[in-house]
Every structure is written in structure tokens, then in C-alpha cells.
Amino acid sequence: SGNVLSVRELRTEFRGGRGNVRVLDDISFDVGRGRIVGLVGESGSGKSMTALSLMGLVPKPQGQVSAKSINLDGIELASISPDGLRQIRGRDMAMVFQEPMTSLNPVRKVWEQVGEPLRIHQGLGRRAIRDRVLEMFELVGIPEPKARLDAYPHQLSGGLRQRAMIAMGLICEPKLLIADEPTTALDVTTQAQILRLMQELRDRVGTSIIMITHDLGIIAEMCDEVNVMYAGQIVEQANVFDLFENPSHPYTRGLLASIPKSTESRIARRMPSIPGMVPNLARLPSGCRFRPRCTDAMAICQTREPAVTDLEKDHRARCWLHARQDAISQGEPL
Ligand code: SF4
Ligand code: MG
């Protein structure tokens, strides 16, 4: 199929003293081959949790991940064993995090860490690993790559560390790279360079990427398709043009309306804010979970959770404003 990843009805719950909290609910989306797909939302909306759930990195036993299907290019991850998933992770599906310093070991040379997936998944020897890391350093644009192989993480700038982490993510030529706020910790110039690098890698190597960000500017520049997340659900899904041209969920509209104009600082643009707060997932409001912040709320929004409505091809929203009238009056699940 044209999809590298197809997720259906992903749910993640955490067991706590006062019962279970569902942190992700009914997450369904696709990532096409060679596409960059965004997950965008405020912090606490479930973006990172979605990535961790896909990667099998949700802490156990408190965290429980279930799904109707998580299909990674023909491999069904929803029913795979922990051992099977360990084989996939870093080989077929890799992740790049926000702050590379915390995911690097300070006392190991960079090349050994970047090459670690080759040791684990392909059993290569040190010579072959070192050669391959050098190739990857060239690919991701690390200057003087040979001299950088034996560096320790603190000897690299933040931007070079993030390039090294991207090299590590790509070293086994994964089908899918998940980038969780990969540039948030970087200065504006370096941020632009890293984003350009990721686009080049998509164009040259054909890497499919899930781009997690709270920055709508990054979404607009980078992504083909977008999933807007709110309180553990995807509330709107569209290609990037439709999302910006015709935002349909009140949350998306609020986010777009709150983007400061270009004369204001980029920092401000990165943090759009609309009135109110993301609800506590253990104490969700009745009906629609966006209702306390929604300026369009209707009576039905208080009593019934909205289901997903198709608006046009590949554009859907989870909101009563767009539900079929007959479905609303008959009270049927959509
Ligand atoms: Fe607002 Fe109702 Fe739509 Fe929820 S379902 S976003 S409360 S209009
Ligand atoms: Mg996060």
C-alpha cells in the first residue's frame, strides 16, 4: 500500500491509585511513503505519548497500550511480542528527541553511540560501524566529519548533537522516523538548518517522518498532512493546505487565529495560546472534552462525545458542528 504506517484505534491507559486514566483515545492516522505527517497540539495533548506508544516505550506495567491495528509496512505491531518490537525499534522505526544531550551518554564517543543500532541490529564490527557512521555524518552535514567521530557529546554544539542524533535515527535506514520536537531546544538559525536537513533527507532518501511539534509554523513549512491533537484525541485531520485554508474544528480555528503576525517574535509565534487549559484527563468534562473552551458549544456538546465526521476527502473533524443532522437527531453513534 502507499502507507508506511497505518494506526487504528490506538488507546493508551495508565493505571493509578484512583483507577485508570486514558491518556490516548481512539487515535487513527496514516503516514504515506515519503510523507511528512505532523502531530500538533498544546503540551499535554498526547503527541509524545502517541510516539512512545508506537515505539513500545510506554512504561510498563502502569502503561497499557492497545490498538485495533498498528501496521508498519506490513508488520502488525498491535500484536507483536516485546522481543519482536525490540527488533523493529531502531531498525524499521526510529525516534529523535527534543534534547539530544539527555539521550546521549556523556562518557562514550559519539561514533560508538550513533553506530549502536548497527551493532544491535546488524551485528557489524567496529571497523564497519565506524565507516558507516562517517557516511552518515556526511549525509547529515556534520562539518569535518572524520574529526568529529571521536568527539564526546559535550564537544559538539547543540545543532551538531541533533544532527548526530538524526544520523543515529537513520543509520539502519528505517521505514519511519519519529521526530519529537527535534528543534525546540535549538536557536532559530540552527532550527531552520535542522528542518531543512530533514526535508532534504525525505527528498533524497525517501524517509517517512512523523513530525511532533507545537509550532504551527513548522507544520506549515514541513508537513504534507496534519493531525491536530487535543486532550488525548485527534480532533482534526487534513492535508496541510486544507487545514490552513479551511480549519474546521473550533480548537484548530483558535490555534490558527492566535498565531501572532510575522512582525512579532518567532518565540511568540511558537506558543499560540487560546483561553483556558487542557483538561485533566482523569476528570474530563462531560460530552466534548473541548467544550469548556469552545465558543461554538451547543447543548448536545454537553451530553454526547462527538465522533469523527468526514468533511471531504482526507479531511475529518471530531466535532458536532460537522456531524450529519440525521445522526444527531437519532442519537446514533456516527
Ligand atoms: Fe465545540 Fe461542540 Fe465541537 Fe466540541 S463538539 S468542539 S463543544 S462545537
Ligand atoms: Mg511532548
UniProtKB/TrEMBL annotation:
Biological processes, Gene Ontology terms: peptide transport; transmembrane transport
Any one GO molecular-function label of the UniProt entry: ATP binding
Membrane topology (UniProt): Peripheral membrane protein
Major site of localization recorded for this protein: membrane
Superkingdom of the organism of origin: Bacteria
Gene Ontology CC: one annotated term: plasma membrane
Annotated ABC transporter domain residues: 7-256
Coiled coil spans: none
Compartments, record wording: Cell inner membrane
Keyword Transport (UniProt): yes
Gene3D superfamilies the UniProt entry points to: P-loop containing nucleotide triphosphate hydrolases (3.40.50.300)
CDD domains per UniProt: ABC_NikE_OppD_transporters
InterPro entries: AAA+_ATPase (IPR003593), ABC_Ni/Peptide_Import (IPR050388), ABC_transporter-like_ATP-bd (IPR003439), Oligopep_ABC_C (IPR013563), P-loop_NTPase (IPR027417)
Keywords associated with the record: ATP-binding, Cell membrane, Membrane, Nucleotide-binding, Transport
Family recorded in the similarity comment: Belongs to the ABC transporter superfamily.
Protein name: ABC transporter ATP-binding protein
Originating species: Fuscovulum blasticum DSM 2131
